[in-house]
Design brief:
Layout (H helix, E strand, L loop, with lengths): L1 E5 L10 E7 L11 H6 L9 E4 L4 E6 L4 H15 L6 E6 L7 H13 L17 E8 L7 H26 L7 H15 L2 E5 L1 H6 L3 H7 L7 E7 L7 E12 L8 H4 L7 H16 L4 E11 L11 E3 L5 E3 L7 H15 L4 E6 L3 H7 L3 E6 L2 H14 L2 E4 L4 H5 L8 E2 L8 H10 L10 E5 L5 E2 L9 E2 L4 H13 L8
Parallel strand pairs: 1-6, 2-4, 2-5, 5-6, 9-10, 9-13, 12-16, 13-17, 14-15
Antiparallel strand pairs: 3-4, 7-8, 8-10, 11-12, 14-17, 18-19
The structure holds ligand BES and zinc ion (2 copies).
One zinc ion binds next to loops.
Length: 491
């Protein structure tokens, strides 16, 4: 998708079809010209409504407000509505909220995210044909926008939305086509393209690093595990950030096998790791002035004679012993070792991990929202805020001492599941916290993306399949840190 930015009014620029976003409060403007037709079509400018006036080459899309989230959704809906049509180019005016160019960025993101479809396995492709989008800086509120500032937002939007779609592609790829070694190759290829360092640890090195819990989870799979480490290291970097992702290329549950209905979509259990790859891509392309390290534990959780078992006791990289009572709680085992490894390799100002860790997170907050956990309220709030600024939903879940006791083990240092059915997202987070060392304990946040990572019924700017959850939220947060001079430690 190419974007052209111009100061010319929409009427004077080329584009086979004009997209017109109508906000409830904005009825008087452009809307006037087709008012009768729109009324006849039953279009009432609500969010998620679209009306294609094919003879006029105009597409009207409703937006609840001029807020970025609503404009992003409206733009995504426009592209969805044009799927299957023959239009190749569109034109659109700019809709800013009091001249703020973030809404322009949101609109561009919406076009790219809404135009996405995954058709690798379809014989007959039905990809969006829209290739050219001309954006006029003509603005309904008649504010004049600085074209350079606007161009910068368009550029950023393209990088971020493309990175999100890159993540979506990885997650949507089937487990037989995307197993740990493939994930590592994708990381290496991407690193080469955008100028990141990339190292990949194979089983021999993983054993040397004493990542025995990760190796145990991987044992029954015919695909060997990998740990990927990507580095973005600009000169005079302000901060050092570590990202860690759960990359379960398939989660069958292991010997604690998932029921048939629950196993479908478990190709998406690599969403955290895939998000880390997407974030690193965007960080490199934006060339953010901060040092960022991305670690991914790429593993397949299968069954077989060599599988790890409930009743096993595993020793994690930091020496802690873990009683296994359920092999389906494997993500936390993989993350335990990768978190330890990441802390050994990098002394970071902040550590964020991304994982489709628990069904309990989906039960707790619904399938649109990520759960943010950790020991530092300020960092949790920072993630929640930046997620919202980026158009993702996130909410903080608080740890507590009582739930902490439920992961105690009679025979080992900690148990991999809780002794209660409730609060499973939090107990999983508290399990991870056992593998964060003292130095980092209040610099870490755990982001459970189990809800929004995979979309079965399209919503917002997310078509069916992987959403790329985590990418926009973290890039926004990293952009924010890159602007800051000082980090406030402790909260
Ligand atoms: N990958 C799953 C969590 C998951 C569930 C992600 C639904 C996305 C959608 C994870 O490995 C898992 O199976 N967790 C168990 C933990 C339980 C055994 C304590 C779960 O959530 O049931
Ligand atoms: Zn599992
Ligand atoms: Zn899992």
């Amino acid at each position: 998708m190419n974007f052209e930015l111009t100061v010319l009014p929409v009427a004077d620029i080329s584009g086979e079809l004009e997209v017109i976003i109508v906000v409830d409060t904005n009825l008087k403007h452009r809307f006037v010209q087709d008012k009768k037709l729109l009324k006849k079509a039953g279009f009432s400018c609500g969010q998620d409504e679209t009306c294609l006036l094919i003879e006029k080459n105009r597409l009207y899309v409703g937006a609840g407000s001029l807020k970025s989230t609503d404009i992003r959704r409206a733009a995504a809906n426009a592209l969805k509505a044009l799927k299957g049509t023959k239009y190749k180019s569109i034109k659109v005016a700019t809709y800013t909220n009091k001249g703020c160019t973030y809404t322009l960025r949101a609109m561009i993101e919406g076009f790219i995210l809404g135009g996405y479809s995954f058709e690798t396995y379809k014989s007959k492709k039905n990809k969006s044909r829209i290739k050219e989008i001309s954006v006029s800086l003509e603005e309904y509120s008649e504010l004049t926008l600085d074209i350079e500032k606007a161009a910068e937002q368009v550029h950023k939007a393209q990088i971020i939305a493309d990175a999100t779609n890159f993540t979506r592609d990885i997650v949507n790829t089937t487990p037989d086509d995307c197993y740990p070694d493939v994930m590592a190759s994708i990381a290496e290829g991407m690193a080469e393209d955008v100028g990141l360092e990339c190292t990949v640890l194979k089983p021999k090195q993983l054993r040397r690093e004493k990542m025995e819990t990760l190796l145990a989870v991987a044992r029954a799979s015919r695909h060997n595990p990998r740990v990927i480490h990507l580095t973005h290291k600009p000169k005079n970097a302000k901060h050092k950030i570590t990202l860690v992702g759960k990359g379960l290329t398939y989660d069958s549950g292991g010997l604690s096998l998932k029921p048939a209905d629950y196993m479908v979509t478990m190709k998406s259990d690599k969403s955290g790791g895939s998000a880390v790859l997407g974030i690193m891509k965007a960080v490199a392309e934006l060339d953010l002035p901060i040092e960022v390290h991305g670690f991914v534990g790429a593993v397949e959780n299968m069954i077989g004679g060599d599988a790890y078992k409930p009743d096993d006791v595993l020793v994690a990289k930091n020496g802690k012993t873990i009683e296994i009572r359920n092999t389906d709680a494997e993500g936390r085992l993989v993350l335990a070792d990768v978190l330890c490894y990441a802390q050994q390799e990098v002394k970071a100002d902040y550590i964020f991990d991304f994982a489709t860790l628990t069904g309990a997170s989906v039960v707790a907050v619904g399938h649109y929202t990520s759960s943010i956990m950790g020991n530092n309220k300020e960092i949790q709030n920072l993630v929640v805020r930046e997620a919202q600024n980026a158009g993702e939903l996130a909410t903080a879940l608080d740890f507590n001492d009582y739930l902490k006791k439920t992961i105690k083990s009679e025979i080992a240092d900690v148990c991999n599941i809780s002794n209660t059915r409730y609060g499973g997202a939090i107990t999983a987070g508290q399990f991870l916290s056992e593998f964060i060392d003292k130095k980092h304990i209040d610099r870490w946040a755990h982001i459970d993306i189990a809800g929004p990572a995979f979309v079965e019924h399209p919503w917002g700017e997310n078509p069916h399949g992987a959403s790329g959850a985590g990418v926009r939220m973290m890039v926004k947060l990293l952009e924010k840190l890159a602007q800051e001079k000082e980090i406030h430690q402790k909260g």
